[in-house]
């Protein structure tokens, strides 16, 4: 009877090596969203501490670690180039910051270098409300300084390009109280500034404007 042979499993290991030691700090760059395809994001030669000749000889490759290949590496210049125009909101949604992760692979010897590109928001969206008109029914005996919460506008832009203020059309009876939530998001409340008299003015038509940072 033939003796049973032990089974074997072969595992291939890829070891990431850095010239600066055990831990690799990523190379961090940034690019504004909507920048046209073919634009240069950064040059990596200085960070890699090699010249163009070595970059080409070591068959440098840029490998995306996130969905889609948004960038490419020019081995003849060391430039990271934008392949397609990036829509930050479509790519990252409400996530902030919006960061894309890649690695540069060099051969002979084998080395990996982490790349992080932060997509900067530009003011390419306007604030919007869920509908164009809102109806409030307010009793005429309502006391002065009564507050009425208003719907917040929606803006896909972030940071300095997000909603910064709300403006109410000029009138004697109502004013606006604009405040900030803990996350910095602005919201507004309508405040009664003068007693109402239905016989004098039965209806008000007011305009609320949301203003972003653009």
TrEMBL record:
GO terms for cellular component: plasma membrane. Residues 30-129, 130-214 form the Cadherin domain. GO terms for molecular function: calcium ion binding. Residues 1-24 form the signal peptide. GO terms for biological process: homophilic cell adhesion via plasma membrane adhesion molecules. PANTHER family: CADHERIN-87A, PROTOCADHERIN BETA-1. This is Protocadherin beta-18-like. The lineage of its organism: Eukaryota, Metazoa, Chordata, Craniata, Vertebrata.
